[in-house]
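Per your request, structure below.
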């Protein structure tokens, strides 16, 4: 199997379970989500811009299907916003930005929790508004609607733009707060927040919208891993196994080499990683301490354990059984790294999985983009 085929296999295990649990997605598309879809569909014709919010880790899989359907009939300008760039590999975000620009969408990568970033993004939005005002000078109020799948960060972005945009305004002290939560499906209605004056710019925060049917199992798996779907659909253990398969085929863990006394083989290809030292024991030197904000002993221990587990593995990762054997070994070393007390195997594995997912989703286990840029036949 190729690397892509191995990852697809792991994604399918998760995606199939999600689809089964969610009845092909039907139970995710609640009456409340149907109402939100109607509300967005009705509003779209009257807004000036649609901010098509994507998760930078899955720029294609996080596309809101409703928006794709509405775009052909709507005249509003669509801007692609890649949110959570702090969790995605930076150089790849640039490539994705160029990809969407080639598709004729103005595009911006943003971390909704970073003030400077939001300030820049607000400047970018104002430049788009100036271009619109040139064509239609009588416009004094501009509306932008944020649309996206659940948990992509719409409310966090709306809040940040509102707070930064109104910081020096008379309304200071009178700021609104859209509800932000790691649980998908938190926003229940459309809410308007002012982000600028002269001209007035309003952002509409909307509820997250999924398609009535989740068809593609790989997309399901990616949505589940990044937190757009509730974890109990796939189960935390299956999600953590999927994440570990992504990690095993990625280069991110190689950055943790300095935490270990292990050495990486010289080969630049990590599809078939072999160890130079075949045992986890026998440490002779103290690991070098990384001086970043992740300097947390558990995180360092997790990174070191994963690095050592992958580099000491002698099997062929392209064979399903071997990949699963490595993942099992990783779970075993993670139990120690997370300092979990002994207990029933199932409970401990569940705890490992929950903790591992939390570290992945807060960016402490590297930066990943799970989608690949489509190859345009014309570019080949
Ligand atoms: N690391 C990181 N986390 C973010 C970012 N933006 C939002 N989040 C987190 O993502 C989670 C979801 O954010 P929300 O703003 O509630 O997402 P939403 O799209 O409004 O979700 P729904 O209302 O459920 O559709 C929260 O835990 C946020 O703190 C970002 O740029 N980077
Ligand atoms: Mg929200």
């Amino acid at each position: 199997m190729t690397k892509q085929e191995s990852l697809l296999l792991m994604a399918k295990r998760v995606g199939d379970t999600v689809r089964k649990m969610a009845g092909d997605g039907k139970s995710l598309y609640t009456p409340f989500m149907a109402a939100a879809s109607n509300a967005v569909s009705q509003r779209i014709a009257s807004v000036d811009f649609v901010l098509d919010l994507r998760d930078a880790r899955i720029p294609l899989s996080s596309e809101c299907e409703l928006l794709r359907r509405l775009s052909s009939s709507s005249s509003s300008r669509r801007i692609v916003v890649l949110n959570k760039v702090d969790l995605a590999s930076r150089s790849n975000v640039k490539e994705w930005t160029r990809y969407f620009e080639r598709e004729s969408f103005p595009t911006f990568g943003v971390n909704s929790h970073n003030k400077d970033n939001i300030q820049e993004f607000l400047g970018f939005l104002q430049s788009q508004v100036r271009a619109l005002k040139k064509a239609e000078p009588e416009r004094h109020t501009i509306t932008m609607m944020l649309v996206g799948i659940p948990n992509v960060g719409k409310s966090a972005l709306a809040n940040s733009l509102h707070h930064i945009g109104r910081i020096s305004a008379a309304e200071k002290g009178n700021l609104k707060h859209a509800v932000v939560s790691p649980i998908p499906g938190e926003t229940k209605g459309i809410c308007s927040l002012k982000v600028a004056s002269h001209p007035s710019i309003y952002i509409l925060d909307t509820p997250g919208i999924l398609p009535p049917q989740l068809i593609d199992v790989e997309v399901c798996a990616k949505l589940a891993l990044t937190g757009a779907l509730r974890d109990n659909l796939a189960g935390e253990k299956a999600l953590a196994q999927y994440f570990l398969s992504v990690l095993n085929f990625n280069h991110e863990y190689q950055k943790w080499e300095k935490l270990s006394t292990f050495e990486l083989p010289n080969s630049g290809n990590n599809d078939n990683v072999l160890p130079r030292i075949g045992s986890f024991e026998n440490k002779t030197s103290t690991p070098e301490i990384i001086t970043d904000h992740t300097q947390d002993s558990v995180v360092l221990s997790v990174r070191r354990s994963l690095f050592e587990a992958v580099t000491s593995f002698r099997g062929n990762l392209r064979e399903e059984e071997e990949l699963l054997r490595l993942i099992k070994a990783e779970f075993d070393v993670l139990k120690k790294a997370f300092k979990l007390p002994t207990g029933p195997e199932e409970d401990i594995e569940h705890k490992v999985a929950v903790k591992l997912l939390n570290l992945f989703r807060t960016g402490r286990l590297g930066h990943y983009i799970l989608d690949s840029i489509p190859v345009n036949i014309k570019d080949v």
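The first strand starts at residue 49 and ends at 55.

Regards,
D.
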